Amino acid sequence: MGMTLGIDLACRAAHVASLAGPDGRLVWRGRKFFSRTVELERLWADIGRDPGELTVVMEPTRNAWIPVAAWFRRRGVKVVMVPTTQSADLREYFSKHTKNDRLDSVVLARLPLLHPEGLREHVGDGPADPLRRVVKQRSSIAKRRTAVFNRLDAQLELLGPGWYDAQGTDYGKATLAFLARYADPTVVIRLGQARLARFLRRYSRGHWREGKAAELIAAAQESLRLWDGDGIDFAELAADIAVEAEQAIALTAQISDLDERIANLYAEADPAGIVRSAPGVGPVLAGIIAGRLGDPHRFTSLAAVRSYSGLVPKVSQSGTSERTGGLTKAGDPLLREAVWMAADQARKLDPQLAAKYARLMAADHRHHDSAVCHLATILLTRIATCWRTGQPYQICDVDGTP
């Protein structure tokens, strides 16, 4: 066993490092430095060891760990990332009532002696990987757009059900363009059917014509009769709806751009399209699974892949008793969400998954969500296996026939 450098990382303040020998005795501790090349070189000189004999142990503190880990990996050093809960428990063992950066770095430096089986070398760039980052960004924007759609639903309810009947609730490009300009019933009526039809033809690419314009004018007239000119300011309501519609238009454009980036990055990460070959996995979900799962070879086993997804149940054992609870949800939440969505579609395409779903629902009396979670672990295991072996997903019948 070589020497261990424990680093307590900070986002704005200085990092603190401590160096421990093979026996856990401290060589030095409390060295402060920032993520600057000059200071990292000075720290490297203070270590004064063969890089092959050094292990760097850190916690994943926001994104501050990424450049430090990359700098040490370029010098052939083994970098280990430790979950914050694990280091916190060890810190409490050392000193229950003390928490400081120097103690944290000492705990991390002595971790190979205290918990050697928990040290796994970290590979990959984490959030520095563009595919991993962009799929997270797309998910965040999509959820923001869904919140905007929900607010639009609530505001349009004030105008009456005729607006839903006329324009639907999918909020496409033509619907959002209409709401951004003409959510005031009086303005719609004043605009007239001919001009409104020209507007709709332009933004719907010819799908909406005079008939749709007549429906919207009828809905506007019904709104005026519903309120009978009392109790609501249509101009103010239209201004509020326009704000939400313009936000939705901007978010939709951003999602479209991100989808194009995801497609290009996914093609680089999985040129053979192995993840995409799985049933229920479309272009967006393939990018999410590939980006959030990362290199499948970094996992020691397929059980570790399932554990990383957080789709495995909690287990509590004591003596002869054993209890299982809900999902651990300890892994990547975006990966878990993507695999669940893929499994819900895959059960309609893969006969084996369909049969498994039927057994879970009939014999085990599972709830739909619980059954799909079970299928999601199977699907993720198969995807990881295919990716590790370089073979595309093969859909088979219940008897194993392709």
UniProtKB/TrEMBL annotation:
Domain of life of the organism encoding this protein: Bacteria
Transposase IS116/IS110/IS902 C-terminal domain mapped to chain residues: 274-357
Pfam entry (one): Transposase_20
Domain Transposase IS110-like N-terminal: 6-160
Name of the featured protein: IS110 family transposase
Organism expressing this protein natively: Ornithinimicrobium pekingense
